[in-house]
Amino acid sequence: MQTTAARLAYPASVGRLPFDPGKMASKKARDDRPLSVSELAARVDSTLKRGMGEPVRVVGEISGFRDRTHWYFDLKDAGAVIGCVIFASSARRLSIRPADGQEVVARGRIEFWAKGGKLSLLCDSLEPVGEGALDQAFRQLCAELRGLGWFEQSAKKPIPGFAKRVAVVTSETGAALQDVLDTAGKRCPAIDITVIDVRVQGQAAAGEIARAIQLLDSRPGAFEAIILTRGGGSKEDLWAFNEREVAQAIHVCSIPIVAAIGHESDTTIAELVADLRCATPTQAAMAVFPDREALGRQIDSMQRRMQADIRRRLELARRRVGQAEQRPWMRDPRRLLDPIADKLIGRERTLRREMQLRLQSARARLDRLAVQLDAHRPAVVHARLRARVEARQVALGTVLAKRLGEHKWRIASAERELEAISPHRVLERGFSWTTGTDGMLVRSAAQVSPGDVIETRLADGSIASKVTDAVSQAETSKKAVRTKKAPNDRRGSKSASKAQSESNPGPDQMDLF
Which of 68, 106, 445, 512 has the fewest CB atoms within 10 Å, measured from its CB? Predict the structure, then answer.
């Protein structure tokens, strides 16, 4: 068994500097110049620190408790009140939670807050006052941790059956360590043991125990189990194992912890939070270190069982080989090949038939594809398209001839109609037309004047004439009306109208042109 001892290192305490009269201001200078508020506050603070340099313990009743990450409350008695503060880092280490009306002993230092002009007691510990105060603090912390589930079995980690490296957190001068080492040497000396020397009672014990557990947990894989133990003592002696910071360090540790604190009748919060609680240090060592003799007996028993099992399996294998030798196919192994050969021959025939069928199907498909390919060869497609074009040319010629004949007939018919109404046909019937010098058709006598040359067109030629007189039909009608008598006679009027209508036969037949 290899045992290693370690001791947690702590910084040395820093004392006060020696008194230096030269650094103090003279009384005259202090009296002559008025002090600012900040200077006065600084002097008050320095005076308090010089006059009360050591932490003080104050007993009083808690009033106005407030939990705002840090704890704030007043400590009072019949004659005075002082404000108190417990910072969160210190509050986590306390074993009790302050409550209004509770009488406690507060330990801390006096501090003057210059900006608020307030004097406060910065506490780092609280102790209940009166008979049963420790029991009250124990019950209060137990109720809190039970509500958090730290005592539940589901929060416990299993203890390894065969740990190779074990750490023991205890005092190296205590009898508990010797009990653990003696038990380990008897049961299994091959396991490595590392001893972490810590205080196990007193005000600094809880912090050392918690830091030792945190130190071991910071080295993953270095240890497989931790034994936290100490010998018996009074309730006050064992109180370090009832502190909250020890319980929290045990709860968050990833290494299984076996706790054995005091005698069998003693119960601490560290044991309740630990993964396994044992009554004595010897029992804790027995839970962690396996029994060498028991392991030897277990190995011998397993060896005998394995040998018996091997003999049984060999005998079973011999019987199976003997039975196999009696089989006919084992005497003549070629009989095993005959069914296989028949099966192979049958599968070969089937394979040949399948191959022939597939080849025939492939050939037929190739023939169909060849026919389709011939039908789509360029020469065939070109001949087919040429025949279609020639047929459409013949049809187009027939349609064009038919359409031309129809249009020729329509043109001949229109020509006959135009010939029938042609001006030359009118001239052949004895009519003529006359044009002026401008080539325009003369339709009225008013269009010409005496001396104008006019041209009269006949069926077989034309006649050029010179106008000597031009009288319109309207003027002739007026002359005829003036020669009539009795204009109011109705009968005479009718005769005149008739004569006028006869003298004006209507438009010239040349208007047809």
Answer: 68
